[in-house]
Amino acid sequence: MKIVSATCYRFSSIASVVALLVFAAPACMAQKTPLFGQAEHHYENGDVYNGDWVNHIREGTGTYTWATGEVYTGHWQNNHPNGQGEKRWLDGQTYQGEWLNGKMNGKGVLHYANGAVYKGDMVNDVRSGSGVYTFTDGNVYQGQFSNNKFNGSGVMTFPSGSVYKGDWVDDKKEGMGVFTWANGKVYSGAWKNDKPAPAGK
């Protein structure tokens, strides 16, 4: 991406203008990014970055606003979000947490546009590792994630008071688990495709 150059020189006299045109203008025109310090620059595609620069690279802290309306504010390294930062999407989704090489990596909190909330581990922009997912209807899952889905061991708590504790595969109860209903009824055993699968059935 190219950055629209800011003014490179201030003129104090006619002579300085002439000198600039003859000797310095080519170098100034070639300078497209700030060398060091804090500055705001506008990209040709409409994006805007306002923050720290080191050797023509976004480095330090700053805010990047995409032409689409998305906004990231936080730490930067080698032109990418790295460290702690927050991103806001146009639909209302937000993420606050750790970043690596421009992607959500590490611990963070995702507030989805529909009101659901995820708090836990992220790997390359997807839910992966341990975390807690709270649904808009009050269901809460706490456990292992892989590829944005419940995978591994986890506990689902329902507003009714029912609880499932056991194995999950791609968001479904699969493997061994215990479901305790709010009325005290308990099923402990195998599960298949989100349903109890007693031996021999």
Average pLDDT confidence is: 86
Structural class: mainly beta
Tally of strands: 15
- Percentage of residues in DSSP E strands: over 45%
CATH class of the largest domain: Mainly Beta
What is the end-to-end distance?
A: 60 Å
CATH architecture call of the largest domain: Sandwich
Counting DSSP H or I runs of 4 or more residues, the number of helices is 1
Give the strand order of the largest sheet, numbering strands 1, 2, ... along the chain: 1-2-3-4-5-6-7-8-9-10-11-12-13-14-15
Gyration radius (Cα, Å) is 26 Å
CATH topology of the largest domain: lipopolysaccharide transport protein A fold
The number of domains is 2
Oligomer: single chain
Q: Report the helical percentage.
A: under 10%
Q: What does the largest sheet look like?
A: 15 strands, antiparallel
Q: Write the H/E string, N to C.
A: HEEEEEEEEEEEEEEE
Low-confidence stretches: 1-31
Shape from CA axes?
A: elongated
Describe this structure in words.
This protein is mainly beta and 201 residues long. The protein folds into two domains: 32 residues, no CATH class; 162 residues, lipopolysaccharide transport protein A fold. It contains one helix and 15 strands; from the N terminus they run αβββββββββββββββ. It has a 15-stranded antiparallel sheet with strand order 1-2-3-4-5-6-7-8-9-10-11-12-13-14-15, with no helix packed on it. Strand 9 and strand 10 form a beta hairpin. The longest helix is centred in the N-terminal third of the chain and has 17 residues. The protein starts with 13 loop residues before the first helix and ends in a 5-residue tail after the last strand. The N terminus is likely disordered.
